[in-house]
């Protein structure tokens, strides 16, 4: 199956999820080259929009993201990568396990029965 990189000017969001817990760890972007590198190496490689180059998550910290499985959505424009985090397991650049730690104030609605 191919990813449709044309929908977002050559990029596709890549959601990284810890395989053992299902916790969402981070979101990055891939282009066709970083996707091919991920497929080839078995480690998640992103495309940095700010630096405009490829980067393998954990190449300096040691917290590499080893691919366990990967899926695409029904539109083929988003990638979900289930991973095992090598190293100390901290994925966020802040030193947290997940980048998703900041709560938002959004009204919640109880489900009706």
Concise overview:
By secondary structure, the protein is mostly beta strands. The protein is 9% helix and 33% strand.
How would you describe this protein?
By secondary structure, the protein is mainly β. It has a single domain, classed as Roll (Ubiquitin-like (UB roll)). It contains one helix and six strands. The strands form two sheets. It has a four-stranded mixed β-sheet with strand order 2-1-6-5.
Overview features:
9% helix, Ubiquitin-like (UB roll), mainly beta, 4-stranded mixed β-sheet, single chain, two-stranded antiparallel sheet, 113 residues, 6 strands
Shape: globular
> Structural class per helix/strand content?
mainly beta
Number of helices: 1
Rg, alpha carbons: 15 Å
Class, according to the CATH hierarchy? Alpha Beta
């Amino acid at each position: 199956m191919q990813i449709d990189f044309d929908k977002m000017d050559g990029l596709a969001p890549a959601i990284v999820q810890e395989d053992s817990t299902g916790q969402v760890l981070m979101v990055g972007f891939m282009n066709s080259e970083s996707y091919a590198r991920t497929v080839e190496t078995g480690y998640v490689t992103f495309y940095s929009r700010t630096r405009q180059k490829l980067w393998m998550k954990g190449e300096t910290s040691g917290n590499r993201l080893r691919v366990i499985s990967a899926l695409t959505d029904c539109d083929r424009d988003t990638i979900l990568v289930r991973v095992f985090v090598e190293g100390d397991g901290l994925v966020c650049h802040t030193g947290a396990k997940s980048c998703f730690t900041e709560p938002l104030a959004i009204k919640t609605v109880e489900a009706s029965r």
